[in-house]
């Protein structure tokens, strides 16, 4: 009995040691490039910042985060962003200042090179700006389920330190939606949302 228990304990310890050794081969050393923007095995890194759409700011709401997952090499860590619903005030042609209920969506993955000299890069693929509803002169207007501007790519640059990575980009293009989208308001909303007068700043807690 004791011999069997000792054997099982030895096997378990050996397995844990092997797992740690294998993981160490893939995880970059903290604080040395390439460090980890999306860290392996750590969920929900807090995200703050804002996206500015055609000159109108939309801060990332509380609860925004990015999950990390290891890719093929120590230098590549993938991640996917999650943003709760938010609001954006935009000057919509013919309607004046309209409050839009929105949600920024990252439908695919993200890639993050962190390199020497505390330089950081971030690419977020398949980003969509979903408009869920609008409030015009106090009256709510449903925009349907097809009022999604995208996909567009965010390719931001910046810096990182021991606690935070901050990257930004200016001039990325948000494509228009079909004129029949958004319960028939597609053309009107595209005139106010689509284009390249956009910027984004992303802060990620490391």
List the helices and strands and how they pair.
Layout: H1 2-26, E1 45-53, E2 56-59, E3 65-70, E4 77-82, E5 86-92, E6 96-106, E7 110-111, E8 114-115, E9 119-136, E10 139-142, E11 148-160, E12 164-170, H2 186-193, E13 198-205
Antiparallel strand pairs: 1-2, 1-3, 1-13, 3-4, 4-7, 5-6, 6-9, 7-9, 8-9, 9-10, 9-11, 11-12, 12-13
Keywords: Signal
Signal peptide: 1-24
Q: Briefly, what is this?
A:
This protein has 206 residues and is of the alpha+beta class. The protein is built from 2 helices and 13 strands, in the order αββββββββββββαβ. 27% of the residues are buried.
Give the C-alpha Rg: 22 Å
Distance between the termini: 47 Å
Note the overall shape: elongated
Q: Name the structural class.
A: alpha+beta
Q: Give the ordered list of helices and strands.
A: HEEEEEEEEEEEEHE
Strand content: over 45%
The total number of structural domains is: 1
pLDDT below 50 for ≥5 consecutive residues: which ranges? 1-35, 70-76
Average pLDDT confidence is: 78
- Number of E strands: 13
How helical, in percent, are the residues?
10-25%
Q: How do the strands line up in the largest sheet?
A: 1-3-4-7-9-11-12-13
Biggest beta sheet attributes? 8 strands, antiparallel, barrel
Number of helices: 2
